[in-house]
Amino acid sequence: MNTTLWIIQGILATVFFTSGLVIILLPKEKLSKKLSWVKEFPDWLRYFICSSKMIGAIGLFLPVYMNILPILTPLAACGIAIIMTLAMGYHFRKKEYKDIPATIIFLVLSIFVAVNRF
């Protein structure tokens, strides 16, 4: 089970850190073509969301790996689950149904990590 958790944590951490980094680094004009939410929200909120994703990704991996405050890992997984719940609500509201399955998968994986690491 521990190996499975590490694999899932690695996948989640990689996906959330890279997506957060890409959204922070790319210009708003380029992002708004692919991500509808970027043009609807102010820049500060985009930076906050992406920074939260990146901090959550680090929190999924580092505390357990370093064995320093390992309780932070399930808390980070809970934070990722909250982000995914909010994203799912946004996609439902905007009728972007093609984005919902990936959101549900990441939500379930983050809940799985949180439950098993607590």
Structure description:
By secondary structure, the chain is mostly helical. The chain has one domain (2-117). The protein contains six helices and no strands. The chain has helices spanning 2-25, 28-34, 36-40, 43-66, 72-93, 100-117. Helix 4 (43-66) packs antiparallel against helix 5. The mean pLDDT is 90.
Give the key terms.
single chain, 118 residues
SSE order and pairing:
Elements: H1 2-25, H2 28-34, H3 36-40, H4 43-66, H5 72-93, H6 100-117
Helix pairs in contact: 1-4, 1-6, 4-5, 5-6
- Helix percent band: over 70%
Strand count, sense and closure of the main sheet? none
**Category by helix and strand content:** mainly alpha
Order of helices and strands: HHHHHH
Give unreliable regions as ranges.
none
Q: What is the C-alpha radius of gyration, as a whole number of Å? A: 15 Å
Report the strand count: 0
Kindly report the average pLDDT value.
90
Total helices: the number is 6
The coarse overall form would be: globular
Short recap of the structure:
The chain has 118 residues and is mainly alpha-helical. Helix content is 85%, strand content 0%. Helix 1 crosses helix 6.
